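Lab channel / #folding
Pinned by the channel admin:
"Please post every new chain as: sequence first, then the structure tokens as a reply. Keep commentary short and put observations after the output so the thread stays searchable."

First post following the new format, from NK:
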Amino acid sequence: MKTSRQLQRLPESKVRPTLEQGIIAQRNKDFQRAEFLYQTVLRDYPKHPDALNLMGTIAREAKNERSAMNYFRKAVKQRPRDTNFLYNLASAQIADGKSKQALETLRKATTINPKSAMHWILIGRAQASLTQHDASLDAYDRALELHPDDAVATIERAEVFVQLGRMKEAAAIFRSAIAKEQNTVKAMTGLSVAHKFAPDEPEPDQMTALLDTAELTENQRQGLRYAAGKALADQKRYDAAFHQFATAKEEANDAFSIDLHRAAYTRMKDCFSKDLIAEKQAFGHPSDKPVFVIGMPRSGTTLTEQILASHGQIVGAGELSDMRKIAVSLGRGDLDHTLFARNVAKLTKNQIHKLAGRYLAVLKRHSSTASRVVDKLPHNYELVGLISILFPNAQIIHCQRSPMDTCVSCFTHNFSSAHGYNSDLETLGQYYRAYVDLMDHWERVLPGHIFHSRYEDLIAEQETSSRRLIDWTGLPWDDACLAFQKTERMVKTPSRWQVRQPIYKTSMASWKKYAAHLGPLQRALGPLADE
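Reply from TO:
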């Protein structure tokens, strides 16, 4: 007698039509139905490679890269020479920060099919993320040899030039792409980063015209608005520029609760008392290799890292997410808001050294020989207590800049939705005050452990301030730190233009260009607005 399971089994003849229905549903953004149809196949054919691959694409739609990689690996296992499966696996690996694994995957793909431009593009992307800039450019060149008009390869190659500070070369590529109508929005956005527009140049008006006429996706419109704002500001059309920035914020409509944020910082201060930090620091790892450059975004963190990384014994690793991952593993962000505090309080010496070792392994991937490695994720300012427990001998450098300049610079940059505090001027001002309050707490519980570096001092007295920075790291002075703009390394933050220039003073008091629009920010900052 047949079981009910056998009676309900999907016939093989129905597998392909079922998957095709799922593909149609996925294209129509009906992800729930698409997943149901793919899982219907996998219920009876759990090793079906196409169904596994399609489930991976659904997981990617949900930004669940780890689940996606699991599905793609299973698909590849069933059909190891399918280069589309390998491509999808490599894409998910890059998105999950596993670019070295992605390169291994892509080497298999290019061995099978060396003439696929899309595989070389992914190789270029993976190598760029690993700061292997020469190899990245070579990969994009291979892609363009195979497909000379490939817009993705063209634009991404230009973006590598931007990260390297080769702005003229990047601008020429972006302009050529615009002329050929190759990914016009992306090319215009890139050009705004690589080029400073003169008053008579037409592109700023072309950008605003495109915003008024073109059918753009939400992400394209957002990026183009910031590009137009920056280009208009270059031409000193500040009211028109501010209109673009403010409209971009309104369209994004990012949600952020300043009350919940303040409450989280209150819990942070309650957790990391002076006594707890002193008790746990005795168990900390003795390494002095980590250097943490912290502060609000747009406060000079990239410039500070570039000066440090110009030293022969210091490597700049960029913005690392690994300390935040350690905090999450301890319960930070959990619905139980006391979990992080309780877990930190229970850490043993062995556990502290294990967590520290996990972080040091990341630094070693950036350099096994450097005396210091710089992590310049600005928002690590929230984790100063945890950092000081894991690494009592780490150097912590706090970058400070005029509150008005810092906030206005944040407002005029296209940060991700993770920076929801940047959604309007009032919230931004209140967020800044909460940041100052938390930094004041760290100074009270860790007196003498934090070096405070003012951006304005660095601009006004470059050598004196730079020497103080290097002295804080405990290393001898290196004259290369005064010519930081000549240091060749990839820079991916919004400050990548500025750190390729000698010290300049035009960014000081730059908020005054938009003074007519900044009442809500000044009121939210209160007395800080005058600093």
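NK: The radius of gyration is 25 Å.
TO: also worth noting, The chain is about 60% helix and 5% strand.
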